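Sequence only, no structure available. Ideas?
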Amino acid sequence: MKNQHYEQALTAEGVQWTYTEKMMLDAIDLRKGLQNQARLTCPLDQELVVQYATAKKNGAELPPVVLYKSGKKYVPIDGNQRLAADVQLKRKHTDAYIVHSTDPMILDRLTWNFNNLVNGKRLSPEENLEHAVSYVRKYGVTVEVACKEWSLPVWKVKDALTLEKAKEVLNRQNVKSSPSLTNDKIKELIYLNNVGEDLFAKAAQVVAETGALQEDIRELVKTVKAASTHEEKMQVIDAFASSEKILTRKAETKGGTLLSTKSLPRARFIHAIRSLANLLESYDKRALLPGLKDENKRLREEARTIVEKLVMLFGLGVLPKEAAS
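Reply:
I predicted one. Tokens follow.
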């Protein structure tokens, strides 16, 4: 059944179209329709498909699907859920609007935008951003045009484009992906890409392998900036990768422990706490309570000595005298 709202939307998009009451389902490339749709994370909503199938079975008239011809088959612009409902009901045909265009830019814009303008769930911010970035990169439109099309701020699309280009460099430099190499960490490293792709790739590989934190990366980039020559900058990254802090990060990321001839402050602290816990478990708690006044004073002095050693161990400064009271 024709839908005036759909016809007005198609006309407003400036495309030629026709309506057909019986489009054979086997003439439609359903798989390709799912691959090129606006909803990137879940192109087919099974709950909605069931609702549509029930409505159609009960005689409800839903809007026609929207298609374009690609080779010998038709590809959905709008209507994946309704087509899936027809398949579920074992129907042979459906009604459809056919868009007469071979311009891939127009067809992509319609596919990504049209169905969400006239029906269904709105796109998520992440999906809007991905479509805007694809529109700029695939068709060379300006960032401003893409932002207007998907209602996004210019800075956000520019930021996403920079990130995509950085990822392409990493892929070209054969940097292996890793959960440790997040988008935020790549953004921290992007300055190095401006200096040299090899520097950027090398630092990114270190981050991917060691799980270096963003604060570590900021310090690395700062040190690289201060280095004079390309060779010195490379040496900075090598030193960063072999530093005790980063080797510790790597061991922690992989769930292991770092073997060292010198125990780290954290390890010494944990050992001291465990020793204290063992002491408390080995004695009657009442025996540890202060007794006479002199004994109480002695115990307080010993407690202060222990605290002072902990302060010194962690480099927290000097314990103030009033803390003894």
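Residues 265-324 form one domain.
Hope that gets you unstuck.
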